[in-house]
Design goal:
Layout lengths: L16 E9 L4 H18 L5 E10 L10 H11 L5 E4 L2 H4 L3 H13 L3 E4 L4 E2 L5 H33 L11 E4 L2 E4 L4 H12 L4 H10 L12 H9 L7 E3 L2 E3 L7 E3 L7 E3 L9 H14 L16 E3 L5 E6 L2 E6 L15 E2 H39 L2 H25 L5 H25 L2 H19 L8 H7 E6 L4 E6 L3 E6 L3
Parallel strand pairs: 1-2, 1-3, 3-4, 12-16
Antiparallel strand pairs: 4-5, 6-7, 8-11, 9-10, 13-14, 14-15, 16-17, 17-18
């Protein structure tokens, strides 16, 4: 009979649990610094006497609602550190501070459980390390989500009330205006440009030519970009320039995730006359509105922009444009039109061909993303970490942050033991908190944003494939959110460039 040797289980009771904390502070203010500092002190004090745990880091997002995990940079940094094996346990004051979205909280907790990391929510006394905790977490997360939606609803009611009684103020003003002492007033540096735009249009010059003239004259455009036809048309149609205000041009959806969309009659609007000093006379403004309506039929606008617009490129360097033939949509390279046919040999391609190719690619990736995308993500994370570790400036900033946290920890211990004056403790810790915030901002500014964005996009893509099923029909949303560009390589092949900097080739089946 074979000899059997029993290998006893390892005693892990003496292992140190690397513990982190996550918090979300609600506003960007001086109080935020105090809140952040107080929470660092709280968790440091909580673990200072522990023999089996050590406080490794504090992750705190500032000044955001928390309804979407994608907007919380510190939350994403924490998840990234968990994936790198730096954390064993996470502490959070409550589920509502961890996430106000059931989907986000459950996805995060499930991923952390697969990594062997537990989350403890103090208020609800839930430890995700327990097998039965996920059901309770789902219930409490739903409560948190409902709370967020209730708060959002109350805020919208207040906004609508202020709109109805005429006391609502927009947070921004259009080109040509500024806020001064809480009131909208014309910007003397831009008034001339606004009036010139209206005069040109009244004299028969089109919006496209107006934008070209402004660009040639070097007139700075809004947001630092060049002038474009849609921007000119927005200015010409904006009632603000005649001194009136139309409220609720856009509205926020009632369900998560909250999105702001154009109001096309779904919600009431509020038109208020003479709310501020005008730039354009009312008679000229009304004349312009009549001209815009009269010129609309002569402008070749597509009623609904195609999902493929500006996304299809040619190997020759040209861009594909859409054309209609016998009620069917085709795409053809601009270098293969009647005048320049010799510059490109690739013939027109039916829109349904691109749609079918996307469906095939999506279903292949959905079936094999674990073998294709997950190893790619791990490799990129390793390369990114190596680059960051080789950056001496980043290393110095990390060292500075560690030293500041160590000083805060020592001050907290001395104060708790009664050996440090309270006034000095408060003054010194506030100074250290400011230094910590400054160092962390510098650290984030020095990180390679492009690499970080690429990793985030790749993680997003993997997450989509984890949650979706194969598709049988073309999905505009999936295409628009995940395909950055299509390149037509030949008569028989096209390449899809997806988010995350990855690309795949598909054959054309005409």
């Amino acid at each position: 009979m074979a000899e059997i040797t029993i290998i006893p289980a390892k005693d892990r009771s003496d292992e140190i649990v690397r513990t982190a904390a996550y918090a979300r502070v609600s506003s960007i203010s001086e109080d935020q610094l105090n809140s952040f500092a107080a929470q660092i002190r709280y968790y440091t004090e909580l673990l200072k006497d522990s023999t089996d745990a050590v406080f490794v880091d504090m992750y705190a997002d500032e000044g955001i609602s928390g309804t979407s995990a994608a907007k919380r940079t510190e939350f994403q940094r924490m998840m990234s550190d968990c994936r790198k094996g730096k954390i064993d346990r996470i502490l959070a004051k409550s589920i509502s501070r961890f996430a106000r979205n059931t989907k986000d909280s459950l996805e995060a907790v499930r991923e952390l459980k697969t990594l062997g990391i537990s989350v403890y929510f103090e208020k609800e006394n839930i430890d995700t390390g327990e097998i039965s905790s996920e059901m309770m977490l789902a219930i409490y997360s739903q409560f948190a989500q409902e709370e967020s939606m209730s708060i959002s609803k109350n805020v919208r009611i207040g906004v609508h009330k202020r709109m109805a009684d005429g006391t609502y103020k927009n947070c921004s003003v259009p080109y040509g205006f500024i806020y001064k002492d809480g009131k909208i007033v014309p910007d003397t540096k831009k008034v001339g440009t606004v009036r010139q735009i209206f005069e040109w249009y009244a004299n028969g010059i089109g919006a496209e030519e107006i934008s070209a003239r402004l660009n040639r004259n070097g007139v700075p455009a809004p947001f630092g970009k060049c002038w474009r036809t849609p921007r000119i048309l927005e200015i010409l149609a904006n009632e603000k320039y005649v001194g009136d205000t139309l409220l609720q041009k856009n509205f926020t959806t009632d369900t998560l995730p909250f999105r702001q969309i154009a109001n096309r009659g779904e919600k009431p609007q509020y038109y208020i006359c003479d709310t501020h000093q005008p730039i354009i006379g009312r008679s000229l403004f009304e004349e312009i509105q009549s001209l815009i309506q009269a010129r609309k039929p002569s402008i070749n606008y597509t009623p609904r922009r195609s999902t493929f617009s500006r996304k299809i490129k040619c190997i020759c360097g040209g861009t594909f444009r859409r054309k209609k033939n016998r009620e069917k949509n085709y795409w053809v390279c601009r270098n293969h039109d009647h005048k320049n046919m010799g510059n490109c040999d690739i013939r027109q391609i039916g829109e349904w061909v691109f749609q079918a190719a996307f469906i095939r690619l999506w279903n292949k990736l959905q079936a094999h993303y674990k073998a294709i995308l997950t190893p790619m993500l791990r490799q990129l994370e390793t390369l990114s970490e190596r680059e960051k570790s080789g950056n001496t400036q980043l290393a110095e900033l990390r060292k500075e942050i560690a030293e500041i946290k160590q000083q805060t920890y020592l001050l907290t211990m001395l104060h708790s033991q009664g050996t440090l004056d309270g006034a000095y403790f408060k003054e010194r810790t506030q100074e250290l908190d400011r230094k910590l915030m400054t160092a962390q901002k510098q650290l984030h500014a020095n990180l390679d944003d492009k690499d970080g964005e690429r990793l985030d996009e790749l993680r997003k893509l993997i997450g989509i494939f984890e949650r979706t099923e194969p598709i049988t029909d073309f999905d505009e949303i999936k295409f628009g959110q995940n395909v950055e560009k299509i390149t037509v390589l030949s008569e028989t092949e096209i390449r899809f460039d997806l988010i995350g900097g990855i690309d795949f080739t598909e054959r054309i089946v005409r």
